[in-house]
């Protein structure tokens, strides 16, 4: 809420008394009222709008008549909330008038994403009365106060899908575009994965002279959206979010291990599969398919037996699948021929990957 109120010079009916010895008072002309002017940083031009980038400097100039009472020595400058007078962490600044009855101060405009009216006021007090002049400017908000770019570990654009393989590294590059003196660090955040050499969900990095800060992130092996963020400063509301999709890293090698190499109609076999990749890990919850067949005399593949636990037959964080059992209590098998147990999946080239183990049937 702005506490400043506009008062028109033309509508003010004031009398300021000037005196040399307390005798012979004379009223001041109504035009002789304090005047406020807003100049650019070079004090060359008056301005009525500015960019709210946290770095812009304005000069406020207050002037009173030269024949004003000598007891009026100073002026109080005030502003809307946000920003501050140079050298002060405040929205108020008191300056003395010089011999020309002029006082100046410099103001650092705030950082804001939004357009708004911004008010300034210069006021003097005399004989328990306060007289002021007020001006406003249009403050133009800035966008992308901080930005975040996601690159490959080798500083290249991300073009191919990013696999959720637990080893791929991403380079996160943030840039503080405004108010670098105040926002001297970037706080990186992530929804999953691990920052290189830094524990926790957040990591603080100093910006360089150009406003850049970088950190590396090792992706998890969980498929899905990875949400990343960069916050300007350690306690700021200026945050940039982006996300990338981590796609499934399918196995390149499967290893099927049965608990036994023989089976009978009144027994079962526990099956364990280890799914691996040449680089990195297989993504969490990658499904593995199980089959059991016998080859008849005509080289036909005949499905036999039954499995339990296949609906939960998915890889854990280490690529292991367990909890699957095989039975041949279905009376659909040939006791004279071996059984081929098969674990299979597709790889990332959509090619079949499988592991086959032969077991024998006991009558």
Notes on the protein architecture:
By secondary structure, this protein is an all-beta fold. 0% of the residues lie in helices and 47% in strands. The protein has strands at residues 35-39, 49-52, 57-63, 74-79, 84-85, 92-96, 102-108, 116-126, 129-141, 146-152, 162-163, 169-176, 185-190, 194-195, 202-206, 212-218, 224-232, 239-247, 253-258, 262-263, 268-276, 289-295, 301-303, 306-308, 320-327, 339-346, 352-361. The strands form 6 sheets. It has a 5-stranded mixed β-sheet, with no helix packed on it. The chain has a 5-stranded mixed β-sheet with strand order 11-18-17-13-15, with no helix packed on it. A 5-stranded mixed β-sheet has the order 20-27-26-22-23, with no helix packed on it. It is rod-shaped. The model is unreliable at 1-31 (pLDDT under 50).
SSE diagram, text form:
Blueprint: E1 35-39, E2 49-52, E3 57-63, E4 74-79, E5 84-85, E6 92-96, E7 102-108, E8 116-126, E9 129-141, E10 146-152, E11 162-163, E12 169-176, E13 185-190, E14 194-195, E15 202-206, E16 212-218, E17 224-232, E18 239-247, E19 253-258, E20 262-263, E21 268-276, E22 289-295, E23 301-303, E24 306-308, E25 320-327, E26 339-346, E27 352-361
Parallel strand pairs: 2-9, 11-18, 20-27
Antiparallel strand pairs: 1-3, 3-7, 4-6, 4-8, 5-7, 8-9, 10-12, 12-16, 13-15, 13-17, 14-16, 17-18, 19-21, 21-25, 22-23, 22-26, 24-25, 26-27
């Amino acid at each position: 809420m702005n506490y400043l109120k506009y008062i028109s010079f033309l509508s003010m009916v004031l009398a300021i008394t000037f005196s040399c010895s307390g005798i012979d008072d004379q009223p001041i002309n109504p035009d002789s009222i304090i005047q406020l002017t807003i100049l650019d940083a070079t004090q060359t031009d008056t301005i009525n709008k500015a960019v709210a980038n946290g770095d812009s400097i304005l000069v406020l100039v207050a002037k009173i008549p030269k024949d004003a009472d000598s007891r009026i020595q100073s002026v109080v400058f005030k502003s809307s909330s946000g920003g501050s007078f140079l050298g002060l962490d405040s929205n108020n600044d008191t300056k003395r008038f010089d011999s020309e009855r002029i006082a100046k101060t410099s103001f650092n405009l705030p950082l804001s994403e939004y357009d708004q009216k911004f008010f300034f006021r210069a006021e003097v007090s005399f004989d328990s009365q306060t007289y002021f002049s007020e001006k406003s400017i249009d403050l133009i908000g800035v966008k992308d106060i901080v930005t975040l770019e996601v690159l490959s570990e080798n500083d290249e654009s991300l073009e191919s899908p990013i696999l959720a393989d637990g080893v791929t590294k991403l380079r996160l590059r943030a840039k503080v575009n405004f108010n670098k003196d105040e926002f001297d660090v970037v706080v990186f955040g992530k929804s999953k994965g691990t920052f290189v050499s830094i524990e926790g969900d957040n990591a603080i990095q100093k910006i360089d002279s150009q406003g850049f800060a970088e950190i590396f992130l090792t992706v998890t092996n969980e498929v899905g959206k990875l949400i990343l963020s960069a916050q300007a400063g350690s306690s700021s509301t200026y945050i940039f979010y982006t996300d990338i999709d981590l796609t499934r890293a399918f196995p390149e090698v499967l290893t099927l291990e049965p608990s036994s190499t023989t089976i009978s109609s009144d027994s079962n076999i526990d099956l364990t599969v280890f799914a691996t990749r040449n680089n990195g890990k297989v993504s969490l919850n990658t499904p593995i398919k199980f089959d059991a067949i016998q080859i008849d005399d005509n080289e036909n593949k005949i499905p036999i037996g039954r499995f339990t636990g296949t609906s939960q037959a998915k890889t854990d964080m280490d690529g292991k699948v367990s909890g699957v059992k095989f039975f041949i209590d279905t009376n659909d098998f040939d006791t004279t021929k071996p059984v081929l147990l098969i674990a299979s999946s597709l790889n990332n080239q959509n090619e079949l990957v499988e592991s086959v183990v032969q077991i024998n049937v006991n009558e």
